[in-house]
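Budget justification, computational time. The allocation requested in the original proposal was used primarily to generate structure tokens for proteins on the priority list. As evidence of use, we reproduce two of the resulting records. The first is shown immediately below.
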Amino acid sequence: MSRLLIVIGQIFMVSGIVVGIVVGILVDGFHWIPTLSWWISGAILGILFFALGMMLELLEENNEFLRELLHRTNVETPTPPMIKSRGNSKSSLSSLSGYKMSSHD
């Protein structure tokens, strides 16, 4: 999948250049504005797809590396401990019954 995204990014870059030149020539001579807009949009799309492909490739490598490390340890993954009930956790406010706030405290 990552290889496909990288190839699509390269196709967008090349096709942006080619289509930009073709569109620039087709409009009564050579005009730079349509050509540059196609070049820039092709470059941006190509870079986005290329970057997504590279990120996915790195993610797959990390996953493979972590699985290899887990396999080398030969230890089963521990199950998280069960949380024990603590009963009634509400604190008693009876010790604060006579306390008054003042600006001199």
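The second record produced under the same allocation is shown here.
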Amino acid sequence: MEKTLLTVDEARSILRVGRNVMYDLTKNGLPHIKVGKQIRIPREALYNWIKSQTTLS
């Protein structure tokens, strides 16, 4: 069963970026929610965000 909400580390492994880049993305438009002090990224929102950032040459 796939998780609905991803941790920052799980999302960054999908994007293959570092921890600082991941936090910068959440500050600059990557959809996320806060659960207490923790950030969670909805899996479907992450994939939709990736599609919206994809450009065709």
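A brief technical remark on that second record: The helical segments are 8-15, 19-27, 43-53.
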